[in-house]
Amino acid sequence: MVSLRPHQEVAVEALRKSLRKGKMRPLLAAPCSMGKTMIAAHIMMNAAEKGIRSIFFCDRVKLVSQTVDTFDRLGADYSVLQADDPRYDPNKLIQIASIQTAVRRKHLAFNLAIVDECHTMYKGLVDGFMDRYDAVPFIGLSATPFSKSLGLHWDDLIVTTTTRQLLDQGWLCPTDYYVGKSIDLKGIKTKSLSTGGSDYDPEALGKAMMDDTFNGDIVENYRKHSNDLQRKAIAFSPSVAHSKSMVERFNSAGIPALHIDGYMSDEERKYIYDDHRAGRCKVLCCSRLLGVGYDDPSVEILIDCFPTKSPIAFVQRAGRIWRIAEGKEKATYLDHAGNLKTHGFPEDIVPKSLDRGEQRFKENNQVQKDEREKITRDCPVCSAAFQGRKCACGYVIPSSDPVFKDDGSMLKKVSKDFKVEDKSEWMGQFMQYAKDKGYAEGWASHKYKEKFGVWPKGVDRTPRPVKNEVRNFITHINIRRRMSNAKPRTYSW
Fold first, then answer.
1. Distance from chain centroid for Cα 267
2. In the chain, domain spans
3. From the CB of residue 46, how many other CB atoms can be counted at a distance below 10 Å?
4. Class of 167-369 per CATH?
5. Which CATH architecture describes the domain 6-161?
6. Which residues contact 423 (CB under 8 A, 6 or more apart)?
7. What does the alpha-carbon distance between residue 78 and residue 87 come to, in Å, rounded to a whole number?
8. In terms of DSSP H, where are the helices of 233-326?
9. What is the pLDDT of residues 211-254, one digit of tens each?
10. pTM, to two decimals
11. CA gyration radius, the chain
12. Which of 61, 68, 77, 275 has its CB surrounded by the most CB atoms within 10 Å?
Protein backbone atom coordinates (compact mmCIF):
# COMPACT_ATOMS: atom_id res chain seq x y z
CA MET A 1 0.00 0.00 0.00
CA VAL A 2 1.05 3.60 -0.58
CA SER A 3 3.14 5.06 2.26
CA LEU A 4 2.24 8.67 2.98
CA ARG A 5 4.08 11.45 4.73
CA PRO A 6 2.43 12.74 7.93
CA HIS A 7 0.97 15.87 6.32
CA GLN A 8 -0.42 13.78 3.47
CA GLU A 9 -2.11 11.41 5.93
CA VAL A 10 -3.73 14.40 7.64
CA ALA A 11 -5.03 15.64 4.28
CA VAL A 12 -6.52 12.26 3.35
CA GLU A 13 -8.29 12.01 6.71
CA ALA A 14 -9.65 15.55 6.32
CA LEU A 15 -11.13 14.62 2.93
CA ARG A 16 -12.72 11.49 4.39
CA LYS A 17 -14.21 13.52 7.22
CA SER A 18 -15.65 16.04 4.74
CA LEU A 19 -17.29 13.28 2.69
CA ARG A 20 -18.67 11.62 5.84
CA LYS A 21 -20.28 14.95 6.74
CA GLY A 22 -22.18 14.85 3.47
CA LYS A 23 -20.04 17.15 1.34
CA MET A 24 -19.94 16.06 -2.29
CA ARG A 25 -17.37 18.49 -3.69
CA PRO A 26 -14.51 19.02 -1.17
CA LEU A 27 -11.49 20.94 -2.41
CA LEU A 28 -8.09 20.26 -0.84
CA ALA A 29 -5.79 23.29 -0.84
CA ALA A 30 -2.55 21.36 -1.28
CA PRO A 31 0.55 23.60 -1.41
CA CYS A 32 2.89 23.23 -4.39
CA SER A 33 5.05 20.11 -4.01
CA MET A 34 2.89 18.70 -1.18
CA GLY A 35 2.37 15.52 -3.24
CA LYS A 36 -1.13 15.83 -4.70
CA THR A 37 -0.66 12.88 -7.05
CA MET A 38 0.56 10.74 -4.17
CA ILE A 39 -2.55 11.62 -2.18
CA ALA A 40 -4.78 10.82 -5.16
CA ALA A 41 -3.04 7.47 -5.74
CA HIS A 42 -3.50 6.51 -2.08
CA ILE A 43 -7.23 7.28 -2.20
CA MET A 44 -7.80 5.52 -5.52
CA MET A 45 -5.80 2.37 -4.71
CA ASN A 46 -7.69 2.06 -1.41
CA ALA A 47 -10.95 2.50 -3.29
CA ALA A 48 -9.98 -0.19 -5.84
CA GLU A 49 -9.36 -2.69 -3.03
CA LYS A 50 -13.01 -2.18 -2.06
CA GLY A 51 -14.24 -2.56 -5.63
CA ILE A 52 -14.89 1.18 -6.08
CA ARG A 53 -14.28 2.67 -9.54
CA SER A 54 -12.43 5.99 -9.52
CA ILE A 55 -11.14 8.43 -12.10
CA PHE A 56 -8.34 11.02 -11.91
CA PHE A 57 -8.81 14.00 -14.23
CA CYS A 58 -5.77 15.97 -15.34
CA ASP A 59 -4.95 18.44 -18.06
CA ARG A 60 -2.49 18.16 -20.96
CA VAL A 61 -0.31 15.26 -22.11
CA LYS A 62 2.58 16.24 -19.82
CA LEU A 63 0.47 16.05 -16.66
CA VAL A 64 -1.10 12.75 -17.71
CA SER A 65 2.40 11.38 -18.31
CA GLN A 66 3.66 12.52 -14.88
CA THR A 67 0.60 11.01 -13.21
CA VAL A 68 1.17 7.70 -14.99
CA ASP A 69 4.82 7.69 -13.86
CA THR A 70 3.75 8.03 -10.21
CA PHE A 71 1.09 5.30 -10.49
CA ASP A 72 3.63 3.02 -12.20
CA ARG A 73 6.11 3.44 -9.35
CA LEU A 74 3.38 2.50 -6.88
CA GLY A 75 2.35 -0.60 -8.80
CA ALA A 76 -1.20 0.56 -9.47
CA ASP A 77 -3.38 -1.29 -11.97
CA TYR A 78 -4.81 1.54 -14.07
CA SER A 79 -6.17 2.56 -17.46
CA VAL A 80 -5.38 5.72 -19.45
CA LEU A 81 -8.27 7.55 -21.09
CA GLN A 82 -6.62 9.97 -23.50
CA ALA A 83 -7.34 10.23 -27.23
CA ASP A 84 -6.47 6.81 -28.73
CA ASP A 85 -4.12 5.67 -25.97
CA PRO A 86 -3.69 1.87 -26.25
CA ARG A 87 -3.57 1.56 -22.45
CA TYR A 88 -7.29 2.33 -22.19
CA ASP A 89 -9.30 -0.45 -20.57
CA PRO A 90 -12.83 0.48 -19.40
CA ASN A 91 -12.86 -2.51 -17.04
CA LYS A 92 -10.03 -1.19 -14.84
CA LEU A 93 -11.12 0.26 -11.48
CA ILE A 94 -8.56 3.09 -11.70
CA GLN A 95 -8.80 5.48 -14.65
CA ILE A 96 -6.32 8.28 -15.40
CA ALA A 97 -8.06 10.60 -17.82
CA SER A 98 -7.36 13.67 -19.87
CA ILE A 99 -10.21 16.04 -19.10
CA GLN A 100 -10.45 17.07 -22.74
CA THR A 101 -11.08 13.44 -23.73
CA ALA A 102 -13.31 12.50 -20.80
CA VAL A 103 -15.86 15.30 -21.11
CA ARG A 104 -16.58 14.23 -24.70
CA ARG A 105 -17.61 10.76 -23.53
CA LYS A 106 -21.35 10.41 -23.03
CA HIS A 107 -21.06 7.34 -20.82
CA LEU A 108 -18.39 6.98 -18.16
CA ALA A 109 -18.85 4.72 -15.15
CA PHE A 110 -17.16 5.80 -11.90
CA ASN A 111 -18.04 6.16 -8.23
CA LEU A 112 -15.37 8.70 -7.24
CA ALA A 113 -13.62 11.48 -9.16
CA ILE A 114 -10.48 13.48 -8.35
CA VAL A 115 -9.76 16.67 -10.32
CA ASP A 116 -6.14 17.87 -10.47
CA GLU A 117 -5.42 21.63 -10.67
CA CYS A 118 -9.14 22.26 -10.28
CA HIS A 119 -8.66 26.05 -10.08
CA THR A 120 -8.25 26.11 -13.86
CA MET A 121 -12.04 25.67 -14.24
CA TYR A 122 -11.73 23.22 -17.12
CA LYS A 123 -14.28 24.00 -19.81
CA GLY A 124 -16.78 21.20 -20.12
CA LEU A 125 -16.08 19.80 -16.66
CA VAL A 126 -17.71 22.43 -14.45
CA ASP A 127 -20.35 23.57 -16.94
CA GLY A 128 -22.27 20.32 -17.26
CA PHE A 129 -20.12 17.27 -16.60
CA MET A 130 -20.08 17.60 -12.80
CA ASP A 131 -23.82 18.28 -12.80
CA ARG A 132 -24.39 15.14 -14.85
CA TYR A 133 -22.67 13.09 -12.16
CA ASP A 134 -24.29 14.92 -9.26
CA ALA A 135 -24.53 11.76 -7.13
CA VAL A 136 -20.78 11.04 -7.45
CA PRO A 137 -18.27 12.62 -5.03
CA PHE A 138 -15.69 14.86 -6.71
CA ILE A 139 -12.48 15.81 -4.89
CA GLY A 140 -10.66 18.91 -6.12
CA LEU A 141 -6.91 19.42 -5.72
CA SER A 142 -5.19 22.79 -6.09
CA ALA A 143 -2.33 24.78 -4.58
CA THR A 144 -4.04 28.00 -5.68
CA PRO A 145 -7.85 27.80 -5.33
CA PHE A 146 -8.34 31.51 -6.05
CA SER A 147 -10.35 31.38 -9.29
CA LYS A 148 -13.67 33.06 -9.93
CA SER A 149 -16.80 31.05 -8.96
CA LEU A 150 -14.92 28.06 -7.49
CA GLY A 151 -17.31 28.17 -4.53
CA LEU A 152 -20.25 27.54 -6.85
CA HIS A 153 -18.82 24.15 -7.84
CA TRP A 154 -16.88 23.06 -4.73
CA ASP A 155 -18.57 22.99 -1.32
CA ASP A 156 -15.77 22.59 1.24
CA LEU A 157 -12.36 24.29 1.28
CA ILE A 158 -9.89 22.13 3.21
CA VAL A 159 -6.59 23.64 4.37
CA THR A 160 -4.57 21.18 6.46
CA THR A 161 -1.09 22.67 6.06
CA THR A 162 0.67 25.66 4.49
CA THR A 163 3.81 26.06 2.42
CA ARG A 164 5.52 27.84 5.32
CA GLN A 165 4.80 24.87 7.60
CA LEU A 166 6.12 22.37 5.05
CA LEU A 167 9.29 24.46 4.67
CA ASP A 168 9.77 24.63 8.44
CA GLN A 169 9.31 20.86 8.72
CA GLY A 170 11.86 20.14 5.99
CA TRP A 171 9.47 18.71 3.39
CA LEU A 172 10.15 21.61 1.01
CA CYS A 173 13.41 23.31 0.13
CA PRO A 174 14.36 26.60 1.88
CA THR A 175 14.42 29.48 -0.60
CA ASP A 176 16.52 32.63 -0.86
CA TYR A 177 14.86 35.60 -2.58
CA TYR A 178 16.68 38.27 -4.56
CA VAL A 179 15.06 41.34 -6.10
CA GLY A 180 16.24 44.10 -8.42
CA LYS A 181 15.24 46.37 -11.24
CA SER A 182 11.96 45.68 -13.00
CA ILE A 183 10.31 47.40 -15.93
CA ASP A 184 7.86 50.28 -15.60
CA LEU A 185 4.39 48.73 -15.88
CA LYS A 186 2.54 51.99 -16.38
CA GLY A 187 0.60 51.95 -19.61
CA ILE A 188 0.83 48.16 -20.08
CA LYS A 189 -2.65 46.99 -21.08
CA THR A 190 -4.38 44.14 -19.29
CA LYS A 191 -6.11 41.02 -20.50
CA SER A 192 -8.85 38.80 -19.01
CA LEU A 193 -7.82 35.43 -17.57
CA SER A 194 -9.66 32.13 -17.76
CA THR A 195 -9.57 32.04 -13.93
CA GLY A 196 -11.76 35.16 -13.81
CA GLY A 197 -9.29 37.94 -13.04
CA SER A 198 -7.10 40.02 -15.32
CA ASP A 199 -3.37 40.33 -15.86
CA TYR A 200 -0.86 42.23 -17.94
CA ASP A 201 -1.07 41.46 -21.64
CA PRO A 202 1.88 39.07 -22.25
CA GLU A 203 2.69 40.33 -25.73
CA ALA A 204 2.82 43.95 -24.56
CA LEU A 205 4.98 42.90 -21.62
CA GLY A 206 7.33 40.98 -23.90
CA LYS A 207 7.89 44.00 -26.11
CA ALA A 208 8.48 46.26 -23.11
CA MET A 209 11.12 43.88 -21.76
CA MET A 210 13.21 43.76 -24.93
CA ASP A 211 15.86 45.92 -23.30
CA ASP A 212 19.51 45.01 -23.85
CA THR A 213 20.81 46.27 -20.49
CA PHE A 214 17.94 44.76 -18.51
CA ASN A 215 18.23 41.36 -20.17
CA GLY A 216 22.00 41.44 -19.78
CA ASP A 217 21.46 41.85 -16.03
CA ILE A 218 19.27 38.72 -16.04
CA VAL A 219 22.08 36.65 -17.55
CA GLU A 220 24.74 37.98 -15.20
CA ASN A 221 22.62 37.43 -12.12
CA TYR A 222 22.09 33.80 -13.07
CA ARG A 223 25.83 33.40 -13.53
CA LYS A 224 26.44 34.94 -10.10
CA HIS A 225 24.09 32.51 -8.33
CA SER A 226 24.77 29.41 -10.45
CA ASN A 227 27.89 28.17 -8.62
CA ASP A 228 29.92 28.16 -11.87
CA LEU A 229 26.89 26.95 -13.88
CA GLN A 230 26.41 23.93 -11.61
CA ARG A 231 22.88 24.92 -10.56
CA LYS A 232 20.08 24.44 -13.09
CA ALA A 233 17.41 27.07 -13.63
CA ILE A 234 14.04 27.59 -15.26
CA ALA A 235 13.09 31.03 -16.54
CA PHE A 236 9.66 32.57 -17.15
CA SER A 237 9.19 35.22 -19.82
CA PRO A 238 5.99 37.08 -20.72
CA SER A 239 6.09 35.97 -24.35
CA VAL A 240 7.57 33.27 -26.55
CA ALA A 241 9.56 35.96 -28.40
CA HIS A 242 11.14 37.22 -25.18
CA SER A 243 11.88 33.67 -24.04
CA LYS A 244 13.70 32.94 -27.31
CA SER A 245 15.62 36.20 -27.06
CA MET A 246 16.76 35.25 -23.54
CA VAL A 247 17.98 31.88 -24.83
CA GLU A 248 20.11 33.73 -27.39
CA ARG A 249 21.46 35.93 -24.58
CA PHE A 250 22.38 32.98 -22.40
CA ASN A 251 23.97 31.02 -25.22
CA SER A 252 25.99 34.03 -26.39
CA ALA A 253 27.32 34.32 -22.83
CA GLY A 254 28.45 30.69 -22.89
CA ILE A 255 25.53 29.41 -20.79
CA PRO A 256 23.69 26.46 -22.42
CA ALA A 257 20.00 27.36 -22.61
CA LEU A 258 16.94 26.11 -24.47
CA HIS A 259 13.45 27.43 -25.14
CA ILE A 260 10.35 25.25 -24.78
CA ASP A 261 6.69 25.94 -25.58
CA GLY A 262 3.37 24.27 -26.22
CA TYR A 263 3.63 24.62 -29.98
CA MET A 264 6.43 22.03 -30.16
CA SER A 265 5.77 18.37 -30.78
CA ASP A 266 5.68 15.97 -27.83
CA GLU A 267 8.88 14.34 -29.09
CA GLU A 268 10.76 17.65 -29.32
CA ARG A 269 9.66 18.68 -25.84
CA LYS A 270 10.78 15.30 -24.47
CA TYR A 271 14.31 15.81 -25.86
CA ILE A 272 14.44 19.28 -24.30
CA TYR A 273 13.22 18.04 -20.92
CA ASP A 274 15.81 15.26 -21.02
CA ASP A 275 18.63 17.69 -21.85
CA HIS A 276 17.68 19.94 -18.97
CA ARG A 277 17.20 17.11 -16.51
CA ALA A 278 20.60 15.69 -17.43
CA GLY A 279 22.26 19.10 -17.02
CA ARG A 280 23.29 19.52 -20.65
CA CYS A 281 20.98 22.54 -20.69
CA LYS A 282 21.52 24.86 -17.70
CA VAL A 283 18.61 27.26 -18.22
CA LEU A 284 15.23 26.16 -19.56
CA CYS A 285 13.23 29.18 -20.76
CA CYS A 286 9.50 29.34 -21.40
CA SER A 287 6.56 31.68 -21.26
CA ARG A 288 3.88 29.73 -19.37
CA LEU A 289 4.40 26.04 -20.18
CA LEU A 290 6.32 25.14 -17.00
CA GLY A 291 4.06 27.05 -14.63
CA VAL A 292 1.86 24.10 -13.68
CA GLY A 293 2.84 20.50 -13.04
CA TYR A 294 6.49 20.71 -14.10
CA ASP A 295 8.31 18.27 -11.84
CA ASP A 296 12.11 18.26 -11.66
CA PRO A 297 13.26 18.44 -8.03
CA SER A 298 16.88 19.07 -9.07
CA VAL A 299 16.05 22.57 -10.40
CA GLU A 300 17.48 25.07 -7.91
CA ILE A 301 16.99 28.51 -9.48
CA LEU A 302 13.87 30.32 -10.69
CA ILE A 303 14.45 33.32 -12.98
CA ASP A 304 11.20 35.29 -12.96
CA CYS A 305 10.98 37.87 -15.75
CA PHE A 306 7.18 37.78 -16.00
CA PRO A 307 5.34 40.46 -13.96
CA THR A 308 1.91 39.28 -12.87
CA LYS A 309 -1.06 40.52 -10.88
CA SER A 310 -2.19 36.95 -10.28
CA PRO A 311 -1.37 35.11 -7.02
CA ILE A 312 -2.16 31.91 -8.91
CA ALA A 313 0.61 32.44 -11.47
CA PHE A 314 3.04 33.75 -8.83
CA VAL A 315 2.66 30.84 -6.40
CA GLN A 316 2.61 28.19 -9.13
CA ARG A 317 5.92 29.46 -10.51
CA ALA A 318 7.57 29.56 -7.09
CA GLY A 319 6.48 25.98 -6.48
CA ARG A 320 8.68 24.74 -9.32
CA ILE A 321 11.82 25.07 -7.15
CA TRP A 322 10.48 23.98 -3.76
CA ARG A 323 10.86 20.22 -4.15
CA ILE A 324 13.63 18.61 -2.12
CA ALA A 325 16.36 16.53 -3.79
CA GLU A 326 19.60 14.84 -2.89
CA GLY A 327 22.35 17.48 -2.49
CA LYS A 328 19.93 20.40 -2.87
CA GLU A 329 20.38 22.58 0.22
CA LYS A 330 18.41 25.62 -0.93
CA ALA A 331 16.54 27.13 -3.85
CA THR A 332 17.03 30.63 -5.26
CA TYR A 333 14.32 32.94 -6.62
CA LEU A 334 15.69 35.75 -8.84
CA ASP A 335 12.91 38.32 -9.17
CA HIS A 336 13.37 40.56 -12.23
CA ALA A 337 9.61 41.16 -12.44
CA GLY A 338 8.73 43.02 -9.25
CA ASN A 339 6.46 40.16 -8.17
CA LEU A 340 7.77 40.01 -4.60
CA LYS A 341 6.90 43.67 -4.20
CA THR A 342 3.39 42.98 -5.50
CA HIS A 343 2.61 39.77 -3.63
CA GLY A 344 5.10 39.35 -0.75
CA PHE A 345 6.67 35.96 -0.06
CA PRO A 346 4.86 33.15 -1.93
CA GLU A 347 5.02 30.71 1.00
CA ASP A 348 2.88 33.12 3.04
CA ILE A 349 -0.04 33.13 0.58
CA VAL A 350 -2.70 30.87 2.10
CA PRO A 351 -6.27 30.20 0.83
CA LYS A 352 -9.01 31.50 3.11
CA SER A 353 -12.22 31.11 1.07
CA LEU A 354 -13.69 30.15 -2.30
CA ASP A 355 -15.27 32.80 -4.52
CA ARG A 356 -19.05 32.46 -4.81
CA GLY A 357 -19.69 35.43 -7.05
CA GLU A 358 -21.13 37.48 -4.20
CA GLN A 359 -18.81 40.46 -4.70
CA ARG A 360 -16.64 41.95 -7.42
CA PHE A 361 -14.05 39.29 -8.15
CA LYS A 362 -10.40 39.68 -7.20
CA GLU A 363 -8.04 36.77 -6.67
CA ASN A 364 -6.63 38.47 -3.57
CA ASN A 365 -10.06 38.31 -1.89
CA GLN A 366 -9.53 34.54 -1.54
CA VAL A 367 -6.00 34.88 -0.15
CA GLN A 368 -4.96 34.92 3.50
CA LYS A 369 -1.56 36.58 3.79
CA ASP A 370 0.55 36.28 6.89
CA GLU A 371 1.88 39.59 8.16
CA ARG A 372 5.52 39.86 7.14
CA GLU A 373 8.20 41.83 8.90
CA LYS A 374 9.10 45.10 7.21
CA ILE A 375 12.56 45.33 5.68
CA THR A 376 15.05 47.43 7.65
CA ARG A 377 16.74 50.22 5.65
CA ASP A 378 19.61 52.60 6.24
CA CYS A 379 18.51 56.23 6.03
CA PRO A 380 20.49 58.13 3.32
CA VAL A 381 20.21 61.33 5.40
CA CYS A 382 21.10 60.34 8.99
CA SER A 383 22.32 56.73 8.42
CA ALA A 384 19.95 55.41 11.09
CA ALA A 385 18.22 52.06 10.51
CA PHE A 386 14.44 52.29 10.14
CA GLN A 387 11.41 50.30 8.96
CA GLY A 388 8.42 51.39 6.94
CA ARG A 389 8.57 54.46 4.70
CA LYS A 390 9.56 57.21 7.15
CA CYS A 391 12.73 57.65 9.25
CA ALA A 392 12.69 59.42 12.64
CA CYS A 393 14.77 62.25 11.14
CA GLY A 394 11.92 63.06 8.75
CA TYR A 395 13.26 61.41 5.59
CA VAL A 396 10.50 59.67 3.59
CA ILE A 397 11.17 56.95 1.02
CA PRO A 398 9.94 58.20 -2.38
CA SER A 399 6.81 56.45 -3.61
CA SER A 400 8.80 55.32 -6.63
CA ASP A 401 11.15 53.38 -4.33
CA PRO A 402 9.21 50.29 -3.23
CA VAL A 403 10.25 48.05 -0.36
CA PHE A 404 11.21 45.14 -2.61
CA LYS A 405 13.34 47.04 -5.13
CA ASP A 406 17.06 47.60 -5.53
CA ASP A 407 18.26 50.15 -8.07
CA GLY A 408 21.50 48.31 -8.87
CA SER A 409 21.95 45.80 -11.65
CA MET A 410 22.83 43.07 -9.15
CA LEU A 411 19.88 41.66 -7.27
CA LYS A 412 19.64 42.24 -3.53
CA LYS A 413 18.65 39.52 -1.07
CA VAL A 414 15.43 40.07 0.88
CA SER A 415 14.09 38.08 3.80
CA LYS A 416 11.94 38.41 6.88
CA ASP A 417 13.77 40.64 9.35
CA PHE A 418 13.80 39.89 13.08
CA LYS A 419 13.97 42.32 15.97
CA VAL A 420 16.36 41.81 18.90
CA GLU A 421 13.43 40.62 21.03
CA ASP A 422 12.55 37.99 18.42
CA LYS A 423 16.15 36.77 18.30
CA SER A 424 16.32 36.61 22.10
CA GLU A 425 13.12 34.56 22.08
CA TRP A 426 14.66 32.06 19.66
CA MET A 427 17.93 31.92 21.60
CA GLY A 428 16.09 31.32 24.88
CA GLN A 429 14.13 28.46 23.34
CA PHE A 430 17.30 26.93 21.87
CA MET A 431 18.85 27.14 25.36
CA GLN A 432 15.85 25.36 26.91
CA TYR A 433 15.85 22.69 24.19
CA ALA A 434 19.56 22.06 24.80
CA LYS A 435 18.91 21.81 28.54
CA ASP A 436 16.05 19.35 28.04
CA LYS A 437 18.20 17.15 25.78
CA GLY A 438 21.34 17.41 27.86
CA TYR A 439 23.26 19.28 25.13
CA ALA A 440 26.04 21.78 25.77
CA GLU A 441 25.23 25.51 25.50
CA GLY A 442 27.33 25.64 22.35
CA TRP A 443 24.66 23.58 20.58
CA ALA A 444 22.17 26.42 21.12
CA SER A 445 24.64 28.95 19.66
CA HIS A 446 25.14 26.82 16.56
CA LYS A 447 21.39 26.48 16.03
CA TYR A 448 21.06 30.27 16.41
CA LYS A 449 23.69 30.76 13.69
CA GLU A 450 21.89 28.30 11.41
CA LYS A 451 18.70 30.32 11.87
CA PHE A 452 20.06 33.88 11.59
CA GLY A 453 23.40 33.47 9.82
CA VAL A 454 25.40 35.10 12.65
CA TRP A 455 26.61 34.09 16.12
CA PRO A 456 24.43 35.22 19.07
CA LYS A 457 25.64 38.59 20.30
CA GLY A 458 23.67 41.01 22.45
CA VAL A 459 20.73 38.63 22.87
CA ASP A 460 19.17 37.29 26.05
CA ARG A 461 20.16 33.65 26.70
CA THR A 462 17.60 33.01 29.45
CA PRO A 463 15.90 29.63 28.77
CA ARG A 464 12.27 29.94 27.66
CA PRO A 465 9.50 27.40 26.93
CA VAL A 466 10.07 25.74 23.56
CA LYS A 467 7.28 26.45 21.04
CA ASN A 468 6.27 24.49 17.92
CA GLU A 469 7.91 26.95 15.53
CA VAL A 470 11.32 26.31 17.10
CA ARG A 471 10.75 22.55 17.32
CA ASN A 472 9.78 22.51 13.62
CA PHE A 473 12.91 24.48 12.72
CA ILE A 474 15.13 22.01 14.60
CA THR A 475 13.32 19.09 12.92
CA HIS A 476 13.85 20.72 9.51
CA ILE A 477 17.60 21.18 10.16
CA ASN A 478 17.92 17.56 11.26
CA ILE A 479 16.05 16.27 8.19
CA ARG A 480 18.18 18.37 5.85
CA ARG A 481 21.39 17.12 7.50
CA ARG A 482 20.27 13.49 7.25
CA MET A 483 19.43 13.96 3.58
CA SER A 484 22.82 15.49 2.78
CA ASN A 485 24.64 12.63 4.54
CA ALA A 486 22.46 9.76 3.44
CA LYS A 487 22.81 7.59 0.37
CA PRO A 488 20.62 8.66 -2.59
CA ARG A 489 16.95 7.84 -2.05
CA THR A 490 14.07 7.63 -4.48
CA TYR A 491 10.76 9.13 -3.40
CA SER A 492 7.44 7.99 -4.80
CA TRP A 493 5.99 11.49 -4.75
1. 27
2. 6-161, 167-369, 420-485
3. 15
4. alpha beta
5. 3-Layer(aba) Sandwich (3.40)
6. 448, 452, 456, 459
7. 8
8. 240-252, 266-278, 311-318
9. 765 666 889 999 999 999 999 999 999 989 999 999 999 999 99
10. 0.73
11. 24
12. 68
